[in-house]
Amino acid sequence: MDLSSLFWIFFIFLFMYPQFMFRLKLLQRYNCIKELEKERKTRVIVMIHRQEQLALFGIPIYRFINIEDSEEVLRAIRMTPDDMPIDLILHTPGGLVLASEQIAMALKEHKAKTTVIIPHYAMSGGSLISLAVDEIIMDKNAVMGPVDPQIGQYPAASILNTVNSKYIDELDDETLILADVSKKAIQQVKEFVYDLLKDKMPDEKAKEISETLSTGKWTHDYPLTVKKLKELGISVNTEVPNKVYKLFDLYKQPVTQRPSVQYIPIPYKKVDYVRGKIK
């Protein structure tokens, strides 16, 4: 075999190998989802947003909740019998309000029990979706976040605070328009959150939580821990099924450089501090 043939074989291998590994990973994910469905007797829907990398070129694509996601989730819900519970495994920084609200309403209207399982975080639109279900299951160190709307690159609440701190003749038309949109956006999200919660708790409590989460009390990335959520009056279960962690591990990103976090990837049961050995 000549050098030219070896080169082309090597080139084809470089092109096909990432595709093969991607297909293998997809198969592993489907099998794990099937195992989880059998264990919990539910329809399992997975929505995990991480930085994906295109095969071969390694170009980063940042993921968030979009219309395509809501289309797929709604399609999965339509394919689920009314008497079958749904588990949504959720890992997301948030995304479009419209898409998040569509998913939230579809889950709320499903007749059987709905559950969101959060192994790490569900911020912004992910939190909005989580408020719609019958049960929230979170890792004890996982977090949710406020659902106050963002207008462009600014929080709606901050735009309103800025406008209220100045005389109207000091503001340009664009700022006034943004303030008007901000006021409407906050009111709309607050009403939507209240609608999600009103059937689960006393009316005044639902109004209080919707006000707290929607009006910019905290920064948009403020972590709502399990403890904080319970203080707010939101019920949380921390018994995450082990298979969820197994599935979550199948969404790890490929390592293209030296990893920033390293450890021996096996579970430790007991440490012998005297001998410094692992039992």
Q: Your description of this structure?
A:
The protein is of the alpha/beta class. The protein is 47% helix and 13% strand. The chain has nine helices and twelve strands. The strands form five sheets. A four-stranded parallel sheet has the order 1-4-5-7, sandwiched between helices. It has a two-stranded antiparallel sheet with strand order 2-3. Strand 11 and strand 12 (277-278) form a beta hairpin. The model is unreliable at 52-61 (pLDDT under 50).
What general form does the structure show?
globular
Q: Classify the helix fraction into a percent range.
A: 40-55%
Euclidean distance between termini CA atoms: 53 Å
Fraction of residues in β-strands:
5-15%
Let me know the largest β-sheet: 4 strands, parallel
Tally of individual helices:
9
What low-confidence regions span 5 or more consecutive residues with pLDDT below 50?
A: 52-61
Strand-pairing-aware structural class:
alpha/beta
Radius of gyration: 23 Å
**Strand ordering within the main sheet:** 1-4-5-7
* Total number of strands: 12
Tell me the series of helices and strands, N- to C-terminal.
Answer: HEEEHEHEEHEEEEHHHHHEE
pLDDT averaged over residues: 87
List the helices and strands and how they pair.
Layout: H1 3-40, E1 43-48, E2 52-53, E3 60-61, H2 67-78, E4 86-91, H3 97-109, E5 114-118, E6 121-122, H4 125-130, E7 135-138, E8 143-144, E9 150-151, E10 154-155, H5 156-164, H6 173-197, H7 203-214, H8 226-232, H9 242-249, E11 271-272, E12 277-278
Parallel strand pairs: 1-4, 4-5, 5-7, 6-8
Antiparallel strand pairs: 2-3, 9-10, 11-12
Helix pairs in contact: 1-9, 2-3, 5-6, 6-7
